[in-house]
Amino acid sequence: MEVIDITRYTIDEKISIARNYLEKDICKAYGIKPEKALTHLSLSNTSLICCHKLLLLDLSWNHLVGSVPSWFGKFESLFYLDLSINSLQGEIPKSLTVLQSLISGNITIEEPDSSFQLSLAQQGGPTLTYRQISSFRPTLDLSYNNLQGPIWPDFWNLKRLHVLNLKENNLSGPIPNNLSGMRDLEKLDLSHNKLSGEIPVQW
Q1: What is the CATH number of the domain that holds 168?
Q2: Rounded distance, CA 180 to CA 165, Å?
Q3: Can you tell which superkingdom this protein's organism belongs to (predicted)?
Q4: Do residues 162 and 183 lie in contact, with contact meaning Cβ atoms separated by under 8 Å?
Q5: How far apart are CA 54 and CA 169, in angstroms?
Q6: For the chain, how many structural domains are there in total?
């Protein structure tokens, strides 16, 4: 399939069009109104800055290049961000250390009712299954990129984060001691970087 045209639809809350090569502004292309509460988005290579109420964003397995946008930090409700397996460069923006939902843990999730249909397929196409947003653990996954620079001590602010995956980058410097204070952290993967110094004794 080469072309999907849904520009005449008005989509307010949930979209999944992952692994594509779309180049349009997603808000204009799919009729998303800035005042609406888009909360679940899985897509590639699009402009997302208008989607202020995102909860979950998965841009993994795409061909993304350049730096991680600093404006991700403005998404106050964002608790799951997966940018893994791309070609992103530069430092991790400090704005990711102030994601409010991962600091306070105040996450309001409204799942769709049983009548919600997740399908853009034509007759005979694959069936899509909706996965509840509440089944995703609070996650920041920047693995398998080309990110450089330090691991910010300010990640300690994200006390509600469950998964922090920074493996397979070019991060350098020490592992911040205060990361051991992230009380809800279940998985931390910093392997295959250029880190120096000792593993913090608190671990």
Answers
A1: 3.80.10.10
A2: 15
A3: Eukaryota
A4: no
A5: 26
A6: 1
